């Protein structure tokens, strides 16, 4: 595993030649002229893009929250509007949106940027939106041991917009609720109202 700050998918880099060959073959099989100027470098570009958009395989998302601070703030902390881009595991088509994370620390707070890094680590791979949502909540619970966590994710799935059912603009909303948020309706309401602002 490489460090959690700047990472690319090393397996893609190791297999670069084979991946490029396969992409070239797919281009040929869909009826393209693989030797035309605009496409000559496309297999290499796509492979470099895979190193980036599939970088999540390179990191254990738990390591991202390795840096924490002891702090007695046992009140709501929210980081909202964390933009993510992921790839749906059914079609390998992009989906993207925002993640909102709220938690009540229990003696341990995370660096704020680490929550955004956690989103990166969980989304930069083949995913479904539900799993992104619950993985973020579960990893927060496991590593920070807070009183509770609530995560909301919205997503626009290109596999539903540009193909198939073709419903551009439709948004999928998912939430995960853990610990004190489960029992406390007022806390959930406070989180939701601050996320909406
Ligand atoms: N639950 C969930 N479903 C997703 C997500 N991303 C894509 N899908 C769905 O995965 C399903 C795959 O369905 P299939 O019937 O196997 O594939 P398909 O024939 O291409 O389906 P259509 O998209 O309806 O044309 C579709 O309904 C997609 O909308 C996600 O993040 N969560
Ligand atoms: Zn899809």
- Write down the secondary-structure element order: HHHHHEEEEHEHEHEHH
Helix content: 40-55%
Biggest sheet layout:
5 strands, mixed
Total DSSP helices: 10
Q: Distance between the terminal alpha carbons, to the nearest Å?
A: 38 Å
Q: How many separate domains make up the residues?
A: 2
Based on helices, strands and strand pairing, what is the structural class? alpha+beta
The value of Rg in angstroms is 20 Å
GO molecular function, one term: GTP cyclohydrolase I activity
EC number: 3.5.4.16
Binding site for Zn(2+): 88, 91, 159
Pathway: Cofactor biosynthesis; 7,8-dihydroneopterin triphosphate biosynthesis; 7,8-dihydroneopterin triphosphate from GTP: step 1/1
Description of the molecule:
The chain has helices at residues 10-14, 16-29, 37-40, 42-53, 61-64, 112-123, 129-144, 158-161, 180-183, 185-196; strands at residues 68-70, 77-88, 94-104, 108-110, 126-127, 148-157, 172-179. α2 packs across α4 (42-53). The model has no long low-confidence stretch (mean pLDDT 95). The protein contains ten helices and seven strands. It has two domains: 10-58, GTP cyclohydrolase I, N-terminal domain (GTP Cyclohydrolase I, Chain A, domain 1, Orthogonal Bundle); 66-196, GTP cyclohydrolase I, C-terminal domain/NADPH-dependent 7-cyano-7-deazaguanine reductase, N-terminal domain (GTP Cyclohydrolase I, domain 2, 2-Layer Sandwich). The protein is elongated, with a radius of gyration of 20 Å. It starts with 9 loop residues before the first helix and ends with a helix. It is an alpha+beta fold and 197 residues long. The strands form two sheets. It has a five-stranded mixed beta sheet with strand order 5-2-3-6-7, sandwiched between helices. It has a two-stranded antiparallel sheet with strand order 1-4. Guanosine-5'-triphosphate binds at residues 88, 90, 128-130, 157, 159-160, 164-165.
